[in-house]
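Weekly sync, protein design subgroup
Attendees: M.S., D.O., the rotation student, P.L. (late)

Item 1: inverse folding check
M.S. brought a backbone from last month's batch and wanted to see whether the design step gives back something sensible before we order anything. D.O. pointed out we never logged the input encoding, so this time it goes straight into the notes. Structure tokens as presented (547 positions):
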């Protein structure tokens, strides 16, 4: 099975084995680029034809009664694949799917029809912490586009020119980095949105500040960008200037005025510019005074970020989407604070699959944008599951999606990696972790209770051996993801030492072994890095209490 899952997949005939392809029809340059990126030669005999056909068949999604430019159809016969799409973007989606089918040996004769259910699907660099290097940004962009995302927001909190130095134009080198990002996004059919967060020092009654804001946005527009974000999150709720307090009844009135003035100025520059905003109240009560007045006071075509019932919401529901629409006249564009692990979550590493989002959420919102971690390589794992959910939420299976992410990103290392990833499930989505370890230790205790100590020791030894093999693999920092995980790998090393000590103490309960176990338990528990669930500490304490 490939991910994201195809909506209507009738490719269930005979297997078709393809080593190289021959291109025909439309979008030849695009097809050449995509096949080349997947290491599939284009000097073969299996014909891949692309037909750009703008019709109801290639544009209309019945489930949501909407037109899309991302729908595609693929027909496969023994010696040919025919792609139909309304434009290059649809062909881009189809070609990536075809490459996956070929690479995974899942190409079969038949027919498929595919399209996304969420209209806006993407991620935002909106975290506090060290900003990503541009090569990391480009790598994540390509992967997310390959997996069906269509939107990218640039808004790193620690980019000084995004927030603290918002009045200043980017230095030339930084500006060129943004241009590279924009061009890469365009090449991969990602809508590029550049965001600015002036609210820490902005004076709402100042024409000078407003003109500086527009000039800053125009400098980015000049490279071709037409998507902008005005972010008013994480700023003071009270006025900082007396002139503002005299002019406006409340902070929300100032925010509405700023957004409307900015919107009008941008539309005068280019009517195709799209504006997205983040209110200062971006979570909680959908019917509060601030958010109700904010939503009803801004233009209907301005998209509005919302994080849900909480800043980092365990669930996102269709009910709250409908309630926000009723209160604000805006369907939410969810700013999903997962997998981000900044602020109080800095000791956590979020590698679990996306869960807790309603399967029919796509019917009631503008879309969903996932906020990433400062660890770009690690963010790829949960982001792949987000991409799967956003394309086909009805068929989305988090466990299957997570296994696929491990396999695609880590290849033959994926199985061993699972022994480590098992312990990194704690996040805003779930407070539970270490399911494999918990089950293993529970079964070992069951065997011991039955007097089958030899079997118990054998199972414990095998599990510890796998954990050690995983640790050895993770210590290879030539793998970029493993280098990012260093803090958690160090804690994992303590975990392996502690498991070994538990096994030794259970088989040879001498005072020396008990003392060693007690020291390792204290060392493990005193390290603040979040790793493993309660089951490991329980096993250590139970062993100490047995003797």
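Designed sequence read out in the meeting:
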């Amino acid at each position: 099975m490939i991910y994201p899952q195809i909506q209507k997949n009738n490719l269930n005939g005979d297997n078709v084995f393809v080593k190289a392809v021959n291109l025909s029809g439309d979008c030849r340059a695009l097809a050449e680029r995509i096949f080349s990126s997947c290491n599939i030669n284009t000097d073969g005999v299996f014909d891949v034809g692309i037909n750009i056909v703008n019709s109801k068949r290639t544009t209309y999604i019945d489930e949501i009664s909407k037109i899309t430019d991302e729908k595609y159809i693929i027909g496969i016969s023994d010696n040919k694949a025919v792609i139909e799409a309304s434009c290059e973007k649809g062909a881009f989606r189809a070609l990536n799917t075809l490459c996956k089918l070929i690479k995974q040996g899942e190409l079969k004769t038949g027919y498929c029809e595919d399209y996304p259910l969420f209209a806006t699907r993407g991620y935002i660099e909106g975290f506090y912490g060290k900003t990503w290097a541009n090569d990391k940004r480009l790598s994540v962009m390509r992967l997310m586009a390959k997996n069906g995302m269509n939107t990218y927001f640039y808004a790193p909190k620690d980019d000084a020119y995004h927030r603290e130095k918002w009045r200043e134009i980017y230095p030339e080198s930084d500006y060129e980095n943004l241009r590279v990002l924009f061009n890469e996004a365009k090449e991969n059919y990602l809508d590029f949105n550049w965001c600015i967060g002036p609210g820490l020092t902005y004076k709402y009654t100042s024409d000078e500040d407003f003109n500086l804001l527009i000039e800053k946005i125009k400098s980015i527009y000049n490279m071709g960008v037409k998507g902008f974000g005005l972010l008013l999150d994480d700023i003071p709720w009270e006025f900082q200037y007396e002139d503002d307090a005299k002019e406006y009844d409340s902070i929300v009135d100032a925010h509405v005025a700023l957004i409307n003035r900015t919107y009008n100025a941008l539309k005068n520059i280019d009517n195709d510019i799209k504006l997205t905003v983040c209110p200062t109240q971006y979570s909680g009560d959908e019917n509060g005074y601030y958010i109700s007045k904010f939503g009803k006071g801004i233009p209907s075509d301005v998209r509005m970020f919302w994080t849900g019932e909480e800043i980092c919401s365990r669930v996102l529901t269709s009910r709250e989407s409908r309630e926000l629409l009723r209160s604000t006249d805006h369907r939410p564009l969810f700013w999903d604070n997962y997998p981000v692990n900044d602020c109080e979550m800095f000791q956590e590493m979020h590698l679990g699959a996306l869960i807790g989002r309603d399967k029919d959420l796509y019917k009631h919102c503008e879309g969903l944008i996932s906020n990433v971690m400062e660890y770009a390589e690690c963010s790829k794992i949960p982001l792949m599951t987000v991409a799967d959910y956003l394309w086909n939420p009805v068929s989305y299976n988090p466990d299957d999606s997570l296994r696929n992410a491990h396999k695609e990103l880590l290849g033959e290392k994926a199985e061993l990696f699972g022994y480590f990833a098992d312990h990194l499930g704690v996040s805003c989505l779930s407070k539970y972790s270490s399911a494999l370890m918990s089950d293993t230790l529970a079964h070992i205790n069951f065997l011991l209770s039955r007097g089958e100590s030899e079997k118990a020791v054998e199972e414990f030894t095998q599990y510890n051996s796998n954990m050690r093999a995983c640790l050895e693999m993770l210590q290879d920092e030539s793998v970029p993801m493993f280098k990012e995980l260093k803090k958690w790998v160090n804690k994992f090393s303590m975990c392996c030492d502690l498991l070994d000590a538990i096994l030794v103490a259970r088989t040879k309960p001498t005072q020396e072994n008990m003392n060693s176990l007690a020291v390792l338990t204290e060392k493990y528990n005193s390290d603040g890095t979040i790793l493993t669930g309660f089951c490991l500490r329980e096993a250590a304490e139970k062993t100490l209490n047995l003797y």
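Discussion: The mean pLDDT is 96. The chain is about 45% helix and 15% strand.
Action: P.L. to compare against the previous round before Friday.
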